Amino acid sequence: MTNEKDNEEVINYKERVGNCSVHKSAMTSDTQEKPRSIQNNKEKAGLRDVRAFTFLVLWYIFSAFTLFLNKYILATLKGEPMLLGAMQMVMTTTFGFIQMYLPLGFYTPVDREGKPPNFWRNMVLVGTMRFSTVVLGLVALKFVAVSFTETVKSSAPLFTVFISNVLIGEYTGLYTFLSLIPIMMGLALCSAYELSFNIQGFIAALATNLTECLQNVYSKLLISGEKYRYTPAELQFYTSIASVGVQIPACFIMMDLDKVHSSLDMTMMVFLFMNGIFFHFQSISAYVLMDYISPVTHSVANTVKRAFLIWISVILFGNPVTFLSGLGTVTVTIGVLLYTKAKEHDHTIVAVREKYSRQIDSQEVVIRQM
Average pLDDT for residues 35-55, to the nearest whole number? Predict the structure, then answer.
């Protein structure tokens, strides 16, 4: 009798322990699934989210200020491109450090217990990509016109589709892929004036496109990670440090020190400082936006931004409006509308497939239990 009671108590104890362990594993899986579901909800809302749309507008505004100050510093004040690029990286490092402790509403601070594995490797990789994008862009401008560089960059969404598929396994449906064609053609038409072909410039512009797309997709991988999520300020600060480390020796090799000495006065310093501030907020706004949208959507938004800046320059600087510019703008607008509809259609197809797959899995479980 005593043995039977002991056996019953042992069995009951095992069942309680088993139930606790199942409950604990379920809680663990729920905890792991929660950030993933939040991230999926963010990306499903996309630019319909008020916060995401706000940062899209801020990104466009800061980009416009940065671009026009670049033009003023290089064309009017005869500044040195390498000094301009170095100042931008120094300012993003400085303000990135400040924003790690004062987010200013850009992101929610996160308490860290040490750094994740391969932290510095990731930072050096992204920092090197940032530096390479800047330098290759300057090399491209040395050999070809701005319009030619922008035309080559119009292929960025296509690069992003393939890179995001390889690095993060993002699925791009057929309709979404086809909708990218009018967007890319539209920007090419907007910038298709005074084209000058040069093989060195073409290779540099193509390499700029590749490094920029790689940087964006890899940054998305870091900022939306499942185990460890980098904040926008962390990416801004640490990648800028890495970029500055790579840029210092390059500046001594490539910079025209005589030109820098002759052009560096108080006016130049003020405009370099202002340009660096705008460049910082342009970069961190882009990082914040990455958390809400996919790399392909980010690339499309970047393409639309370029077309928008072309028209802003037409209005402010009185650049001539050509038939191709108007046709390109209309084509980009139609392409964006098609992209939005295609994205919704592809999301619906993926949701139906996932629902059907879950139903099959549940049926298989029931069959096994029977």
Answer: 68
Cβ count within 10 A of residue 135: 21
CA atoms within 13 A on the CB side of 84: 25
Residue 73 vs residue 17, higher pLDDT: 73
Torsion of CA 10, 15, 17, 22, to 10 degrees: 160
Per-residue pLDDT of 82-137, as tens digits, reads 788 888 888 999 999 999 888 888 887 777 666 777 888 888 888 888 878 877 87
